[in-house]
Amino acid sequence: MFKNDAVISVVDDDESVRKSLQRLLRSMGYAVRTYSCALDFLHQGALHDHGCVIMDVRMPEMNGLDLQKRLSDCGVSLPVIFITAYEDPGVRAQAMQAGAVAFLQKPFSDGLLIDSIKSAFNYNSQQTGASIGLDIGPKNMSGG
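-> structure tokens emitted (144 positions)
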């Protein structure tokens, strides 16, 4: 479909989610790195070579919101796309207020994810410092 040289990182403790997203994104020409936890992602080094990170909200040791805050505190301006199986309006609001590009509730369509990634890369290229703010909850989702 389209190709981008930036790396997309997937941080999720569910191996099946990591593998599924990796397959999808690689089939679309993206370079993908996967991590089973937030700490592995943080310790891998060169965070600035990533185009965006897709991360689960609920993970052991360090959750997605804590990882988002840690990145921000370290001065890493990396667009974040949250994915979650649990509807929690408070968590959704916190993630979006902290600058998440998108917040997708599982299951989500491939199209919504790809649109979110495009927004993340657009955010990166504009460097506006403001989030695009795709807030995709169950009431907004299309099938697929």
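The longest helix spans residues 110-126.
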